[in-house]
Model the fold of this input.
Amino acid sequence: MNTRRGIRWHLFQVQLVSIVPIGLFAAAMLYLHWQVQENERERSQMESVRLMAAAVDNALDSTVERLSIFARLWSSTDLSEEAIFGQAREALKANADWRNIVAFGADGHGVFRTDIPFGSDVPASLHPELIQPVVVRRTSVISDVFYAASTGRPLVAVAVPVVHGDDVTHVLIASLDLAWYDRLLNQPGQPDGAVAGLLDRNLKFVARSLEGDLRRGEDPAPGVADDMRRDREGLDRYVNLNGTPVYNAWTLTRHGWIAGFATPSGPVDNAFWNHLLVFGFVWLAAMSAGVLYAFAKARPIAASLESLEDQAEHFAEGRGITNLPDSRVEEVHRAFTALERASGLLQSAMRERDRSLDTEREARAVAETANAAKDEFLAMLGHELRNPVGAISSAAAIVKSPKATPEQFDFAAGVIERQIAHLKRLIDDLLDVGRVMMGKILLDLRPVDLAASARGVVATLRTAGRLADREVEIEAAPAWVQADHTRIEQILTNLLVNAACYTSSGGRIHVRVACEGHDAVVEVGDDGRGIATEDLSRVFDLFFQGDPSVDRSAGGLGIGLTLVQRLATLHGGSVTVASDGEGMGATFTVRLAAIAAPGAELTEAGAMPGDRGQTILVVEDNADARESLAVALTLEGYRVLEASDGASALEIVKRERPPLAVLDIGLPRMDGYELATRIRAELGRGIVLIALTGYGSERDANRAADAGFDEHLTKPVNVEELMRVIDERQATQRGPEAVRA
Done:
């Protein structure tokens, strides 16, 4: 049986075999694309309803907090009920989301309502279930929707206790303005026809972005209500109360209410079928045109294709194609030419493929190494942060114990001081290495004696216990350099801590400072673990550390030596390392350009202690931080004034006109920058302003200086450092003669 057929039939088969699967594949891709869009729409809708739930929770939390503050104000004062009534009316004006404030006695008798004059009869509460839990459990209660006895309007109320002594004497109730919650749900940017709703624990509408007053207190659609009772969160297709098919997403809030967000399903569903219909029409038209074209071109192509057979065999074997014959069919002639070019491109692509595979293997190895370094650094960071936090926690337990002896108190205080200093060093090193590597460190260059700096750093580390059980020898001759004194101490501290970390108990650390030619040299050597020969070239790499089994009690993140190298380079110097191998110790050498010793008037350092009997203002919204700093400054002899926000601080400044002030930046309503500007406008340069904040970048320091601050200190700062800054600033204000006196 002859199964051969003409080229028209074969081209028709080609059309069917190619276009039909392509059409089906394109239809499948269209469906998958629609599914992706549908999943994205569902994710976006769920994200929107979660944001709504968070906004509702924040609003309810805010109401409870504001009402509790008012209750505590009542509890802490001897104001009459009429005075409290007046303050309640003022509070109602300041809270747009409240409709009314009502006060009841603990026994349920009415005290006052802000919507009627004081002294008018206030009926006993018709909702003891709202008051009793507040009185019994002394906790706030948020009601579900109920109807006011006088107006029949649906209401939601928040109740908090008023405690005098150990008893709940009154209950404050704020009825919420549910129209405010309608507006909260009606956020801009929602799709056309979208409706957001808020339901209470009984699945009654509390608020709705559309028809809020009309639907308040009603039930949702039956189908969605059943699903909401069963599941905390979900999304499905329903018919809403207006009879419109919608996609409805809901989630449970922290307060037990349910936030819902519905969008019409029509635009979503119809879009897919419309696109599919258009695609089907285009696909059928393309297939018909392809079949007609195949039949029309079959005859001339058939003759020309025979000449491709031999060359196709060459191409299939991957060999190069040259010297192709001419064809009377232009398309086939171009195909010959394209085949020849394709052969050359194939050869080039095969070579490029081989090179790409090699590059990919190298890139993968680099990525795996970087990922391992990241994991190791995070593990080290967790270890280094847990150790001091654990020590501080244990020391805090000793301080709180009534059985602790004075010696144990002193020991605990020393532990807290040392571990906080250790944490500060870790944070400063992390920040500094980032600034250095980004070129954002500015040096304050002054004449510095490396010998004096080395002795000072060794003394400080000894006092902090970082060199305990190590024998430190100092061989230091005066060696002056033009450098930033703080950064020089940072270099010396990191080198000494590194030596202590890799030197066993009882080991020896040798520090040498000398001038060699035009260089000032600092050498820090130890007889500790040493450095393997293959690691000598990596010791200054970021996050590199030697043997991971080294005892990590001394701490470290593998950034200290990187910081040493970058800081030395910033000063125009260098740092090198030498070691004879593992177990033979190591020596780090820093070289900086030496200068002649400056005159005596330039080397006199320090400032006279300030007048410790002066008044100092401390402004900090964190009560623990403010009060602990106030106690510390009081112990130093200062008279301390305290403020928790900018407004109260300005009142104190105008009344007391203190010569010193320590301000936090992150204050409520009026930040520290604005407060400093207003204090400067009031007192001019007659006050020393010190910023004590957690914002420690160079940009923050510049912004503090622009606002009028004299100093910018980052938290945590110990009292000794703060006192040193205060003394220096006071000495500066007294004049140069005070510094040299």
Observations:
- The longest strand covers residues 167-176.
- The chain has 20 helices and 24 strands.
- The radius of gyration is 39 Å.
- Residues 549-555, 601-608, 736-741 have pLDDT under 50 and may be disordered.
